[in-house]
Input
Amino acid sequence: MASYIAPVVLVLVFVVIVPLPLVANAQSYRNLTTGSAIMAGDPSTNLLSSSGEFAFGFQTMGSSGFLLAVWFAKISEQTVIWSANGDSLVPKGSKLRLTDDNRLSLDNPSGGEKTVAEQPGSKFAYASMLNTGNLVVMSPLGDVVWETFDHPTDTMLPTQKLGMGSQLVARYSQTNYSDGRFMLAMQGDGNLVLYTLAYPLNSINKAYWATNSVGSGLELVFNQSGQVYLTTSNGTIEIQSNNFSTDGFYQRAVLDSHGIFSQYVYPKSTIPGWSNNWSKVSEPVPPNICTSIAQDVGSGVCGFNSYCTIGDDQSPRCDCPSGYVWLDPDDTVKGCKQDFQPQSCNKTNPEGDKFTFKEMINIDWPLSDYEKYNGQTENWCRQDCLSDCFCAVAIYRDSTCWKKKVPLSNGRTNIAMNGKALVKVRIGDSPFGFGENKQKNKIPLHVVIVGSVLSGGSVCLNLLLVIVTLLTCRRLRSKKADSEQQPVPIEEAGGLRHFKYHEIQEATNGFKEELGRGAFGTVYKGFVTSFLGHGGHVVAVKVLHRLTEKGDIEFKREMRAISQTNHKNLVKLLGYCNDDQHRILIYEYMSNSCLANLLFEDSRPNWYKRIDIAEGVARGLSYLHEECSRHIIHCDIKPQNVLLDDGMVAKISDFGLAKLLVADQTRTLTDVRGTKGYVAPEWFRNMPISAKVDVYSFGIMLLELICCRKNYEPETEDEPEMILANWVWDCYHEGNLDPLVEDDDEALGDKRRVERLVRTALWCIQEDPSLRPTMKKVTLMLEGAVSVPVPPEPCSFLSSV
Ligand SMILES: *[C@@H]1O[C@H](CO)[C@@H](O)[C@H](O)[C@H]1NC(C)=O
Ligand SMILES: *[C@@H]1O[C@H](CO)[C@@H](O)[C@H](O)[C@H]1NC(C)=O
Ligand SMILES: *[C@@H]1O[C@H](CO)[C@@H](O)[C@H](O)[C@H]1NC(C)=O
Ligand SMILES: *[C@@H]1O[C@H](CO)[C@@H](O)[C@H](O)[C@H]1NC(C)=O
Ligand SMILES: *[C@@H]1O[C@H](CO)[C@@H](O)[C@H](O)[C@H]1NC(C)=O
Ligand SMILES: *[C@@H]1O[C@H](CO)[C@@H](O)[C@H](O)[C@H]1NC(C)=O
Ligand SMILES: *[C@@H]1O[C@H](CO)[C@@H](O)[C@H](O)[C@H]1NC(C)=O
Output
């Protein structure tokens, strides 16, 4: 939803609207008398007000049927003010009649009729659509005997009043006019109250806002100048006001499907600088719906297991927590469900180690707890929830741990909470754990171990500083990729946007802001207008330095391969430029810089975040190696090439570029500065390069993630600690991993996982590529979905220093 602020206006919000076929021309100003009818599917029979601004008749609701309604007739967006049959739409051919026995009757051709209006004791002469938006039924004497203003649905218009005993009921959703989950009641006791309803019944559940005017309130008035107020025996209580004239603007006050009562205006004529749309112009009542509702029974603003976040425009948004998905994506009111098999409560098979937590800051489900513990550490809280099959979410705040069970209710984002939700999810991405489909990817680990024992330490060649001449494109390409090398039709590189060089110059303001330099090129910040011409986004513009001489075809082929990748842990390529000799890539911009900057500085991410990052990178690599249409080896995995987005999701950058490096024999790997420590030994030997080079680099990076330090620290006083891989092996060998995570309480409290991760990393950095697991396997090891056997000593890689 877009929003903007206009001078006098507090908040302007577009309402979701559905285009309405413009049929106004066909309608005419007339009254409905006995003997005539309004037909569903024949707009010419609708009633129009004399001003032409309001219509009464049938609205098409897509394929679902017709809704008998009053609406704004001069507005192209369907804006229903009043409706008669939201819960049971009628088919084409249905008609509304004024019957001889003084009723408005809705007749369904497939049988059945529904009384829309009747007034015992009164005679109905004709019905007329007034210029106020009120549909009235008149007696033969010219008195109003029935009117929609006295029987409102969810909307009030200027001049309308809500007397004692009447109410507005919210619709179910923006486009579903069935009765929904909220009510604004002008009570007989004088109080004006907002209630949640016990959906699907109309019985009231819990009040969440009131004027507290018991004994003095009289009626709710929406007056001619756009003020909404409660009259009392003692003056008025203002509910809402706006500064828009009712002459220049259509106005309405609505109890929306999220339980918010707000006023909207729509300019009657086009005003320069104004968009013709409904705009929210009052402070919503209540001001923050997400934190206003907390009910013992019922789901709250959003559905069960979801949570509510208030937007800048003060309208709420409902989301599923991590690991949960919508029950019905087309009807979010139905809530979310767990996207995994819940924990077993079988006491011989407790499954505690098959679950982990997704951390969500300042998210709470305030009324779903069944246990509460004071004075505990976060780690205690985590362990306790893991070992409890009822526990779906633990909330940790101020040394207090609350356990909650599903379905979770009243979910909301609340920045005042100052705590976090630990959402328990089954380890692994697939809904039902690690069943058969993963089995076939298993490395026979006993074979691996036997192999390593046989080869013993002797394989550990002494890899002293070798100046390497390498990285020809040819070597990088695996056999498989070669066989796939039929000519590809290359007109456009796979739906990417092609930029002219001058566009890039403009976008980067003449390459003004440099974000960084890497092995492949220099990165600049830029801004491009969006593909559709309005708005735009910040991008990262990468100017490649070293390129293959193969030129355009090769470049486009690679762009095509990159553009066909799509994974949440890969940076997205948006476009490219290949004018003349320029080779430039345009990527989405990552706000949180690269992992290297976070990890090796004070702002290091916490233990759980680091695990998330490691798992994310592993999944991204696994995708590149095995799942994307053309298998890609990265060749340069390191923390500088892992970027983090707003949500701290890890994204691998620079993949697919290795093949573009120049096949220049004088170039050496030492040019690739900062990469040395991550380079697999086979680069230095005459060995085929496979995806396992990435596994090696990942292993080194995993050690860095565990210990929050660089793989090589020459300034370290303690020599054994200088090379991280050696130090980790020593610690592991001695059976004491604590020094590795010395000042990290969370990791110290999670020792079993520290050990699992260390073992995984040690497998990844085995000198013999065939001993290293695949990235897919690494993913499972990190998640704890497979056990990680004792690793052999990875030959220490002194040469890289
Ligand atoms: C419809 O009824 C109104 C009174 O409510 C009357 O003034 C008007 O003339 C009628 N219009 C037509 C077209 O009969
Ligand atoms: C409106 O929502 C209710 C509740 O989900 C559903 O039963 C009904 O079919 C919906 N009506 C339409 C027209 O989609
Ligand atoms: C509407 O109500 C406001 C506030 O009570 C008042 O100032 C204004 O004069 C009223 N306008 C009309 C047309 O009655
Ligand atoms: C009348 O209004 C005053 C202040 O506005 C309030 O203190 C008082 O309680 C009200 N009296 C009644 C009967 O509502
Ligand atoms: C309407 O205008 C008056 C004076 O111009 C101002 O005091 C008041 O705050 C405005 N109200 C709103 C809702 O903008
Ligand atoms: C009105 O809102 C709709 C959707 O909210 C949007 O697509 C449209 O561009 C807006 N119209 C104008 C004139 O701003
Ligand atoms: C509980 O788990 C054990 C071990 O996995 C299994 O043998 C047993 O059948 C399970 N019991 C039930 C009731 O599922």
Summary: The chain has a mean pLDDT of 81. The longest strand covers residues 176-186. The pocket of 2-acetamido-2-deoxy-beta-D-glucopyranose (ligand 7) is lined by residues 346, 348-349 (CB under 6 Å). The first helix runs from residue 289 to 292.
